[in-house]
Amino acid sequence: MESTAGNADWTAYEREKKKLQGLPPEEYEAALKELARRMGI
Fold first, then answer.
1. CA separation (Å) from 6 to 3, 24, 26, 28, 30?
2. 11-19 long-range CB contacts below 8 Å, 24 or more apart?
3. Distances (CA, A) of 40 to 9, 14, 23, 34, 35
4. What's CA 36's distance to the chain center, in Å?
5. For residue 16, which of 2, 28, 4 has the smallest C-alpha distance?
6. At residue 34, does pLDDT exceed 60?
7. Which CA distances in Å does 25 have to 9, 11, 29?
8. Please, are residues 20 and 32 in contact by the beta-carbon 8 Å criterion?
9. What is the 3-state secondary structure (H, E, C) of 18-40?
């Protein structure tokens, strides 16, 4: 069962992910992994 905090984190993650979409593929992958790690996803 998901908590509301988890949902808020996921929304923030999706928003950050959109900002990264202009990056070259290899940078995008690395940035996504770093973002997920920072947010604990």
1. 5, 29, 27, 23, 22
2. 12/39, 13/39, 13/41
3. 9, 14, 22, 10, 8
4. 5
5. 28
6. yes
7. 24, 22, 6
8. yes
9. HHHCCCCHHHHHHHHHHHHHHHC
Q: How far apart are CA 35 and CA 41, in angstroms?
A: 9
* pLDDT attached to residue 1: 44
Task: Tell me how far apart the terminal alpha carbons of the chain are, to the nearest angstrom.
Answer: 15
pLDDT exceeds cutoff 60 at 2: no
Instruction: Give me the percent of the chain exceeding a pLDDT of 90.
Output: 56
pLDDT, one tens digit per residue, over 3-22 is: 566 677 889 889 999 999 99
Q: What is the pLDDT of residue 3?
A: 56
